[in-house]
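Reader question, answered in our methods column.
A reader sent in the components of a multi-part assembly and asked whether the whole thing could be modeled at once rather than chain by chain. We filled in our standard form and ran it. Here is what they sent:
COMPLEX SIZE: two components
ENTRIES:
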Amino acid sequence: MNPEFRRNLWLELTPRRIALMVIILALIFFAAAISGGKDYRPAAVAEALYYLIVVLWGSRNAALSVVGEIRDRTWDMQRLSSIAPGAMTWGKLFGSTIYNWFGGAICLAVILAYRISHDGPAPALLDFVYFVEIGVIAQAGALLASLIAVNRRQHHSRLEIFIYQLAGLAAALATFWVWEAADPENVFRQARAAQSIMWWGQSFGLQGFLLLSLGAFTAWILVGCYRQMRLDLKMTNGPSVWFAFLVFIGLYVAGFDAWLTQDAAVAHWHVAAKRLALAATTYGVLTYIMVLLEPKDRVLMRWIGSQLRTLNLRAALGALQSWMMAWIATLAVSVALILWLGSYELNAARDQALAAATLGFIARDTGLFVLAQSWTKRRGDFSALVVLLALYVLIPAIMNGLGMTGLQFIFFPKETSPLWLTAAAPWAEAVAVWAIAAGRLSLADREPGPILQAG
Amino acid sequence: MIEVRDLVYEYPSGRALWGVSLDIPPQTITALVGPNGAGKTTLLRCLAALEPPYRGEVTIDGLNSRARPREIHEKLGYLPDFYGLYDDLSVRRSLTYAAWAHGIKPDAAGAAAEKAASRVGLGDRMEQKASELSRGLRQRLAIGQAIVHSPKVLLLDEPAAGLDPAARKELSALLLSLRDSGMTIVVSSHILAELEDYCSEMIVLDKGRVAGGKPIKVREIERPRYLIELASPRSDLGEFLKGNGGIDVIEANEMHALFTFTHNPGARAKLVRDLVNAGFEVARFAESDRALEEAYFAQVGKTGVAA
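And here is the structure of the entire assembly that came back:
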C-alpha cells in the first residue's frame, strides 16, 4: 500500500474518530427521518452533509496536506523519501481526506438508497458519478492551489490556506453548474432547457459535451497536482506536458467560434481568424494567471539566462516557467492572427495594430511582475497589481477627466493616428520595462549579497 | 563519497555559497562548523539535493544532485536543525512509515524499524507515542527515522542541540557505531567540544566559503595529536622535537608544543624518556583532546564561540 496513504489511515481513521462519525451521522439521519419534512428527509440532509464533509471540509484538508507538513516540519523528511511523485500525490489527496470520504460514503449510501428506491438505478448511478466527481475536483483544486503556493514560499497563513481551499470550492461550484446544465431531464438537479452546443462547427448534445469537458478538466487538474508535486520533490518538469495543455486549451476554446458571431468587431472575420483570436486570448489570459501564480524567482531567471548563453537549451527549456511558455504561445498565435488578417481580411490594418498593441501590453505587464518581484520580494505581485490598476484604470480616468483622451493609447490598446503608434507605444514600454528588469537581475548577479537565509 | 565542485547557491535575497569545493571520503565523520550565517545549513541542504546548485556540482556516491535528486534522496538520511515528528504515531509506526517511505518492502519494514529503534535506544518504547517522548528521545526518534533504511550518507544539522550531556555522549557513541557500519556522516554543530568525540575531518565555512580552501584532517588514528607542557621554559623545545624522527610539529613555544606522532605506546614512552634525559621538565604529555578547536581557530584566527 502507498506509504503516505497508509500513514494517513493511521492518523485519520482511528477507531474513536470512526465511531464518532458514525454516531453523529446516524443521529442526524434519525432526527431527519422522524421530523418528516420534505426538506429534512434523510436523503436531502445527506446531500447537504456530503457537501459539508467532502467538499467544504475535504477541500480544507487537501489544502493542508502539504502546507501542514511544512508547518509541522515533516515535509523535508517526506521529500527525502523514495515515494514517487504520483504516489505522493494520490497518497496526500485521498489520504488527507480519507476521514471526509468515510463520512461522505455514509451520506452517499443514504442518497443512493433514496434515489434507487424512487427513481431507479440509472439516476442513482449518475448521482454517484456526480458526487464523487465534485468531491475529487474540489479537493484536487485545493491541493493544486496549495502546491503552486508552496513553490512560491514556505510560510502560509491561515488566510492563505483558506484561499487555497477557495480554489477547490470554485472548481466545485463550476462542477455544480456544469452538472446543472447537463441534466436536462431534471433527474436530480434543477433543470435548464436542453440545448446543443456548437464546437468546431459541429453540433453536440450539451449534456455529453459538458460531461466530457468536465472529465478532461478534472484530469488536467490531477496532472497539475502531479507536476507540482514533482517540482516540490526537486524533479525537473520538462515543457512537454504544459505544452500539451496549451495545445488542448487552445484547441478547446478555439472551437467556440460560434460565440463570436454576435460580436460586431470580429463577426465579419473568417472563422479561422476567429479561432486564432480565441486561442490567442486564452493564452494571454493564461499568461496573466500564471505570471501571477508562479514565483518569478530571479535566481531561476538568471540561471535560465546562463544556460541560454552557454547554449544548454535542454536545461533552459526544462526550467521554463509556465507563464513564459504561455506568453510564447500568445505571441505565436497572435502573429499568426496578424498575418492572417493581413492576407485574407480587407481593411485589416486597424485590427492588426490593435492585436500587436495587445501583445505589447502583455509583454510590458509580465515585465512589470518580474520587475516588481526584483524590487520587493514579499509584496512583489501585489505591487505589480497596484501598478497595473493605476496604468489601466486610474491614470486613464484622470486623463479622461482632464480631456487628454488622445494619450490613452499609452495605457491600453486603442487606435491612434498614425496607426503604427498604436502598436509602437506599448512595445516601447515593454522594451523599457524589460530592460530595467534585466538590468536588475544582472546587477544582483555581480554584487555580493548578504546571506539572509538559513545558516 | 561526497564531491562538491565550485558550488554556488543563491537565495533571491543574496548569495549564500561562493564556489565551495570539497571532498568527503567514505566512512568518515566530518564536522561542518562556522559562524552563524556562514552557509552551513544551505550547504547541507545542497548535499541533500533539496536545493539545486546555481552553479557547480554536487555529487553523492556518483550521482549528480541536479540530474538525479531522487536517487540521492534514496541514499541519504537527513536530520534538519528544526524537524518535526508525527506526534500521534507511536515509535513503531513512525519508524515503520519511515522504512516504507524509504522503499523498504512491507515484510522487511518491521524488522528495519526494530533495528533502527534498537540503534537509537528506543527499543523499549516502541508503543509510546512521539508526543509522549522527552526532547532527547524525540531527537533519537528523528535520527532513527533518518537511518532506518541504512543510508550511505547521513547529514545531521545541529543534532545535539538541546540534548543533556548524557544524551550527547550517547549520540557520539551512536554516530561512531554508524560510521563503523559504513556510513559517511556530516555533522553541522556549533559545539566543538562535542564534535571532538567523533569527527575526523572538519570543514570550516566562513561567509559562504570554505576557510582555508579545503577540509582539514583533524584526527588520524595512526598519528594522533599530542600536547607537551613543560614546568619550566626551554626555548629549544620545538627544535628538539623536530630533530626527533617521526614528529611533525604543528606549533611550539618555550612552554608547550603540539605535534603529531605515532600511536605506538613504545615510541611514545621512548620520546618521554628522551625529553627527560635531555633535561626537559615535562609536566604533561597527552593526546590532545582539542584537535578540532585548535584547527578551527587556526582557520578562523579568532577566539570565542564557534558559531
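What stands out: Residues 184-192, 446-455 of chain A have pLDDT under 50 and may be disordered. The two ends of chain A are 38 Å apart (CA to CA).
Send us your own complexes using the same form.
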